[in-house]
């Protein structure tokens, strides 16, 4: 007798979305040069009209940030900056439920994820970095902030990416001009309101909504001393070119094509959970997703059977439902990209499988998908798909696993599954990746540095290391 | 990790062979297992699904009394409750079984006759199991003779923890024979086994030796049943079926007090072993206070009001 | 004219406020000599009970995540801030001084709690390390709390000095038994009221008012105490005796300062590091 879970919808009434939003400059909400619409990707419903920042708006924001840096925030002692950040952290905790609901409405991720993963980490990042603001003397990078930081963040973890950027920047004494992603501006705008509630001095945080062009303007602006970007490698490259020859300091957190390596002595059931979490968490919209499964050939069949059985339990559907595991794809263009690359996977000869899955009619949806018989040369093994698509390859020996794992221009993350401690450590040693997860995956903590090797970018966010980017030394 | 072969009979030919097999089973990562169990505990079960789950949970309860102070009067009251849990609502289903000490089996059998509620007896020098084999078998035989149709035995933990797996195996086989037609639940006492790896090994050992059900605990040792331990046992029965075709049941016992907890266990069953185990013949709750909480929740769903303990019997 | 309800000042042990088991008390006077209140006069049995409570609390407190401990310490700062004016009055009564000077002291004490709260999840990053040994080994040094710390609080700095000896000991996961300033114990007792309402598990901080001359030797010789902070011991001969007694189970000892302490200065890491152990683990790396 099947156990059907009845609908368990989260209430949307806790959120109050305004019909339109301005830019947040110098502590106030102001009109922008243009406007655009933000859409709920699960229903295609229009949520709000959001301002688009043009060149004059960027000038104004950078000036406000500069003035506040020179007059207020820069000279402020660390112990006072710390207390502002603690206030912000506390308000985020207090409004956590509301922000989680707002996040999933704008982004499409399941409410359970935004409530249980995103929001606690957001608050924790502000708490963690609040505690550094008055201790920079112990961090090892000097105590001199850059000045004005221009920060451009992506749509996959909107508020969390904001926390990763804003918290350390402010802790070190910089002021910020933040450009949230075009498809997910709403939680950044709620954050602006939180800054007002915390009585943060005007101009310390400025939020400029807009699209790619707004981001380009922020990055290129001569008044910005430090640039921080998370997004695609393609755009990261363009930014690196833009700042070449300038005195701007830059950190980039870009794409990945992580290998999740499963050895014959892996704890099977937990490895399957880790594989599933690695690629289907957040619909695969994760730069560090374990998108390549490298399984030891001797156990590939057994593991794949287990994996398929587990995938059949994934609940795809309304992100509003608290029992949903996989939500909507963030946008129509992203969905198109995932579809196209999956077709290419089939064309190139890999075998495609998805569990039976009823997808809603409206909104942007893609069933969790597995490709077996994949080789390194296939595009689905090389290109970042950024969706719930797992490519499975095999290996015979540890050396071969390492070789294949490292055989990519990317180097953000990797997973290793084995019950043998010395093997885990030896493999972790040889992997060219900034984050290695052993017998786990997609674990984040404000105390733990995150960032990539090679074309996955440079610089680290989180931990004591995360301060380095925001201090001139 | 190995694909389990069909030649499992060979595995128990010696201590060494049994050890090689059990130690060759895939390990369990503690952190990962606990996270998975916790995540399944966040499923939100509401309205129709919740009502269905509550009814099923009631039908899965092995209503238990295992106290030195048990008397025929106490057991008689418990049996009445088992047959008709909700005095105010005849539509409430009966529980699966009443579980008592061997000395009380006769009383239970008499008062449950014709009701469909099973008579379960603990046996084998429950809860410690520290007695000669002959005593443990006599214990079992006495309970069966007096009318028990289910026997809950304890494994020899001392032998298990000192690596004498064949001794544990042989005892289970002997008790199985002593059960005759009664079905056998094997209590692993997971709190004493201490690691999930041991729980997995003990589960397989019990199933290979002929258990019909594997059970977490006696309820006399802390920790008793937990979600992660039950998860590991559900994975074991799932894998055992894949290897042999045989379906073995699971019974968490001890420490499950609220309807909310019980529903979490049902979610665990649903998303681990699968819906085939969502039946009293395949899954039971060893509990006493749980039943009243299930009844109160069921009543709230039916009437819309929060219930109070005065409206349900305390036996 | 309204008569105020005066507070009774008791001990703080295991999260509760008992009187001394000896039933004794002693009068506490203000800086200008007026009677303020009777405080409990702790006995050796109170010391024994406090150490037991501290030991019982260490498992859970040390086992909490650093994030969780930091959150609780920050909450304590919130509660302190809420009682700012009460503390200003009590510290002024105890120590004297202008209202402005005392306000500054109290503010510094609150900010100091905030400072220590933020160290919980960072000390390991500053004081721990991955060590590059010459061989195929993953070698990691981490910090762990030492266990139960006995503290003789400063005699004269009744809030700022007190906070500066208690916070660094507990932020890393230790539980403490504090002997309050003998003549000026009342702000310490009010601090324990703050702790009791801050989600701090009972037993992490235990506070005994009374005569350190009487109670300190019992703390110093107690075999289930791991470390001793003698900051508030003014008499060098007495301090030496206590240190000698502590040697029996090799307690880690912090000696009294050589001269008067400027409690407003940056404390540095010393008071946290004094009460942690460094554990270094080796793991071979090989497939």
Q: What does the radius of gyration of chain A come to?
A: 22 Å
Structural shape of chain A: globular
Reading off the top of the CATH hierarchy, the class of chain B is best stated as Alpha Beta
CATH topology value of chain B: TIM Barrel
Number of strands of chain A: 18
Note the main sheet of chain B. 8 strands, parallel
What proportion of the residues of chain A form beta strands (DSSP E)? 15-25%
Integer tally of domains of chain A: 2
Cα radius of gyration of chain B in angstroms: 19 Å
Beta content of chain B: 5-15%
Q: Report the structural category of chain B.
A: alpha/beta
The quaternary organization reads as: heterotrimer
Poorly predicted runs of chain B: none
Q: Helical segment tally of chain B? A: 13
The averaged pLDDT of chain A comes out at: 95
Note the gap between the termini of chain B.
Answer: 48 Å
Number of helical segments of chain A?
A: 15
Low-pLDDT sequence parts of chain A: none
Strand order of the largest sheet of chain A: 13-14-15-12-11-16-17
Strands of the largest sheet of chain B, in order across it?
A: 7-6-5-4-3-2-1-8
List keywords for this structure.
heterotrimer, A: 473 residues, alpha/beta, Aldehyde Dehydrogenase, Chain A, domain 1, Aldehyde Dehydrogenase, Chain A, domain 2, 2 domains, 6-stranded mixed sheet, globular, C: 287 residues, 5-stranded parallel sheet
Q: What is this entry, summarized?
A:
With 473 residues, chain A is of the alpha/beta class. Helices cover 38% and strands 17% of the residues of chain A. In chain A, α2 (78-94) runs antiparallel to α4 (111-130) and α4 (111-130) packs parallel to α5 (158-171).
Give the helix/strand layout.
The complex is a heterotrimer of chains A (473), B (315) and C (287).
Chain A: E1 20-21, E2 23-25, E3 28-30, E4 34-40, E5 45-52, H1 55-73, H2 78-94, H3 96-107, H4 111-130, E6 148-152, H5 158-171, E7 175-179, H6 186-197, E8 205-207, H7 212-220, E9 226-230, H8 233-243, E10 249-253, E11 259-262, H9 268-280, E12 292-296, H10 300-311, H11 332-347, E13 351-353, E14 369-372, H12 379-382, E15 389-395, H13 398-406, E16 413-417, H14 421-430, E17 435-438, E18 457-458, H15 465-468
Parallel strand pairs in A: 1-5, 6-7, 6-9, 7-8, 9-10, 11-12, 11-16, 12-15, 14-15, 16-17
Antiparallel strand pairs in A: 2-3, 4-5, 10-18, 13-14
Helix pairs in contact in A: 2-4, 3-4, 4-5, 9-10
Chain B: H1 15-24, H2 30-40, H3 47-59, E1 61-64, H4 72-83, E2 97-100, H5 105-112, E3 118-122, H6 133-145, E4 150-154, H7 157-161, H8 165-179, E5 183-187, H9 190-193, H10 196-208, E6 213-215, H11 227-244, E7 249-251, H12 259-272, E8 285-287, H13 290-303
Parallel strand pairs in B: 1-2, 1-8, 2-3, 3-4, 4-5, 5-6, 6-7
Helix pairs in contact in B: 2-11, 3-12, 3-13, 4-5, 6-8, 10-11, 11-12
Chain C: E1 25-29, E2 35-40, H1 44-63, H2 66-82, H3 84-95, H4 99-117, H5 123-127, E3 129-130, E4 137-145, E5 148-152, H6 160-171, E6 175-179, H7 186-196, E7 205-208, H8 212-221, E8 227-229, H9 236-246, E9 252-254, H10 270-273, E10 276-284
Parallel strand pairs in C: 5-6, 5-8, 6-7, 8-9
Antiparallel strand pairs in C: 1-2, 3-4, 4-10
Helix pairs in contact in C: 1-8, 2-4, 3-4, 4-6, 8-9
